[in-house]
Amino acid sequence: MPLAGETIAITVALDKPAPEGGLAIALATSSDALSAPVQVVIPGASASARFEAYALRPTSRFTLRAAMGQTAKELVLRIGGLEVSEVVADPIGIDDGSQWIKLRNRSSLPIDLSGYDLKAGELDYGLVTVPLTGTLPAGGCAVIGGPLQS
To answer: Which of 11, 12, 22, 61 lies at a C-alpha separation of 20 to 30 Å from 130?
Structure first.
């Protein structure tokens, strides 16, 4: 899995070589987390073309779609870099206000946390939602919660 701040090489391949004059393939992504060209041209007599995309920020799964006319293929991608590295969820004894989570930025870019939420629950992750704020520097960590913190 690529990390935010990395360049990703992607190859579009055909079942048979492109016709003389080449073949234009339209590209589209379902997320703004990836910067990619809107089109790649496979040269005539070639069966593939390679292009580069740039991972802008960590995200969950999204798709990159390559289409030509009515024919399309999708590639499911995920960009890493932001991870939960440690959790103290239920300490022994009186634990009110003692829970905490440590986030780590593994990428080479600062990460704006305003687009992320921490979620918790028992049957699903909808019981508690905490919107995040601030920026986590490249290679940095942040502890959220802790003694007497809400």
So the answer is: 61
Measured distance between the N- and C-terminal CA atoms of the chain, rounded to whole angstroms: 33
Distance CA 21, CA 42 (A): 9
Q: pTM score > 0.85 for this model? A: no
Q: 95 near 88, Cβ under 8 Å? A: no
| Pair 109, 81: CB distance under 8 Å | yes
**Cα dihedral sign, 57-2-39-63:** negative
Q: Give the other-Cβ count within 10 Å of 58's Cβ.
A: 24
Rounded Cα distance between 117 and 132, Å, is 6
| pLDDT over threshold 60, residue 104 | yes
Phi-psi region of 51 (alpha: psi -120 to 50; beta: other; left: phi over 0): beta
The pLDDT score that the predictor gives to residue 149 is 47
* Cα gap 140→107, rounded to integer Å: 9
Full DSSP string of 52-113: EEEE-S-EEEEEEEEEETTEEEEEEEEEB-EEEEEEE-S-SS--TT--EEEEEE-SSS-EEG
C-beta of residue 6 within 8 angstroms of C-beta of residue 55: yes
